[in-house]
Amino acid sequence: MAKYRYKAKNLEGKILYGTLEAGSNAEFYDNMEKKGLYCISMSVKKGETAEGRERKLKMKTLSVFCREMSVLLASGMNLLTALRLLYDREEKQYIKDSYMGLIESIEKGDTFYEAMRKQGNTYPRLLKAMILAGEASGSIDQIMEKMAIYYEKENALRTKVQNAMIYPLILIAVTFAVIILLFTFVLPRFFDMFEGQQVPAITAAFMSISRFLTGNWHLLLLALLVVICVVKALGENKRTGRKLDQLILSIPIFGKLINKVITGHFANAMSILYASGVTIVRALEISGETLDNRYIAEKLVNVREKVEKGVELSQALQQEKMFDKMFWSMVHIGEESGNLEMMFFKLSEYLEQESEAAVQKMMAVLEPMVLIVIAVVIGAVVASVLLPIYSMYQVG
Predict the structure, then answer these.
(1) What are phi and psi of 43, to 5 degrees?
(2) Global pTM?
(3) Which residue, of 91, 136, 328, 333, has the fewest CB within 10 Å?
(4) CATH second-level architecture of 262-356?
């Protein structure tokens, strides 16, 4: 049996959306005819599982979704009509499925929040919490606009970090490929000339490396696969994953950038949640779950527990040594002035600029470092070949 999602028209001309299980297309159309429905469009997904329906939406998709919903709702369109419009325009099937899930739930009487909650992990908890707050205040269109700005900023920053890493990673990958090509195909032909002769230490070392690579490449490939699997397994384990996330923050240059990005992400989430009337404890819980670093997320749990016991947020952050002194001070000023919402907003703007500056600084340091490493390696390889040749000519 397959599950069909359809858009149809009934005898009165009303547009309906729904799902229907059938063993074939012919059976589906027969069942639709029995219901008195004319199928306008349909899609089928065989073997659909709960996991498939809970595929997480990407940051860019969320920003577009929130922006379009904000515009449609602000124009006076009701929620169901807006979702149906987005469903009709969407091309990616898994996104259409998520929209259809929302439509079906709301048609059955669920609120927008309840419909999102039933979608599992498809929509992030931060968005669901904001929708709940928007329903309570009757301002879902404004909430959607805020979330659109939030996801647009997060997506833009993430894209900048990813783009900044592409060039160094390409250089490193090309360097490794060239080195392997040299040691396995090019250098062995030269090293055959030096067999039985006294050669410089660098040439002898490179000859040993070349023999090892050409003779044991399958073992090296197996070892690489084992290392990847072990690192992946360690990352999925809660305890070791936390240690790895902590280690990432201690990496020179890169660790500082990640810390700034996470700090800005936290401040941005807290600003939106707190401004929407979510309590500080609840805001800490939700914003902690949006962070990509388990080490910081765990420390934030400790902060939340201390705040629940009556400790000021700035003091709790300082005790857990989260973020930096400037962050604690700004939060403390916000608490003293009674304007914590505005302080989080200012912090998120400041940290966004700092993150962009850190990306540029990282690029300025990484590019020459990678080029220097490439030059040293290539120079050493060339020297390992030319030195014995030069010695042979001198002897001759």
Answers:
(1) -140, 150
(2) 0.67
(3) 91
(4) Up-down Bundle (1.20)
